[in-house]
Each structure stands twice: as structure tokens, then as C-alpha cells.
Design a protein that fits this description.
This protein has 142 residues and is of the alpha/beta class. It has one domain: Alpha-Beta Complex (Ribosomal Protein L13p, Chain: A). It has five helices and six strands. A hairpin with a 6-residue loop joins β3 and β4.
């Protein structure tokens, strides 16, 4: 039995749309991370960037289960002394739901150059409108 290894020049990229309305944020992010990484393909190779483009719509309507709206906290640091910032998940989902989805997908990608390159193929929108109709994306159901 031989193993098929994809070469970077042979990778064919497709465009997918994921509708996050009424679906848990983490599950939507996990599906998007798998598509961005290319793990759904037969020719998946761990050291080659063989993922697809992903568009996530309706991030405003994604849900957080349990008590995550009150208890989950997003932290970031400015780099200055005492520069730790904390934002609760409820506030983040109300004001910047697209940023919350991007952070969730980023956490599920590898922390190397492959993950950084895959994250450039992610497009996240708060509403149902997107500007990538020319690429003819196809609907991906969870």
C-alpha cells in the first residue's frame, strides 16, 4: 500500500460557506478549522498547506452553551506593565462576534506557519451578507 503525499503545486482549493446561526460557536469553529487545515481531503498531508477557503456567516446568531456568556473571559495584554485587558464572552458576542469566532478558530489551528497561513483563508461576517460570491462558494452543512 502506498501513501499519497500532496505537493504544494497540486493542491486544489475550494470555497465553503458555514452558517453559524443557532449553532454552538465551538462546534462551528472546529468544522471551520478542519476545512482550513484540509483534514477532510483524501490527500491530506500534515506538512503541506492543503486546506480550503472558509466563509462563516451569521456570527451574531451563534450560541454559547452553559454559563459561558457570564463566566468565559477573553484576555489580551498590551505589552505594558498592568496592561492586561479582560472582556467577558457576553460582551464580546454582543459587540464583536466575528472576533470571537476568529479567536475560536485560531485556537484550533496549529501554532506554526501552517496555522498562520490557514487563518488568512478564513472570512468571518456578522450578518448573512458576504462579498465572495464571485468565487462560487458551496454550502457546508454541520
Amino acid at each position: 500500500m502506498s501513501t499519497t503525499l500532496a505537493k504544494p503545486a497540486e493542491v486544489e482549493r475550494k470555497w465553503y460557506i458555514i452558517d453559524a446561526a443557532g449553532k454552538p460557536l465551538g462546534r462551528t469553529a472546529a468544522v471551520a478549522a478542519n476545512l482550513l487545515r484540509g483534514k477532510n481531503k483524501v490527500t491530506f498531508t500534515p506538512n503541506v498547506d492543503c486546506g480550503d477557503h472558509v466563509i462563516i456567516l451569521n456570527c451574531d446568531k451563534a450560541v454559547l452553551t452553559g454559563n459561558k456568556l457570564e463566566k468565559k473571559v477573553y484576555y489580551h495584554h498590551s505589552g505594558w506593565i498592568g496592561g492586561m485587558k479582560a472582556v467577558k464572552a457576553g460582551t464580546m458576542m454582543a459587540e464583536h462576534s466575528d472576533r470571537a469566532m476568529t479567536l475560536a478558530v485560531k485556537g484550533m489551528l496549529p501554532g506554526n506557519t501552517l496555522g498562520a497561513k490557514a487563518l488568512t483563508r478564513l472570512r468571518v461576517y456578522k450578518g448573512a451578507e458576504h462579498e465572495n460570491a464571485a468565487q462560487k462558494p458551496e454550502e457546508y452543512t454541520l
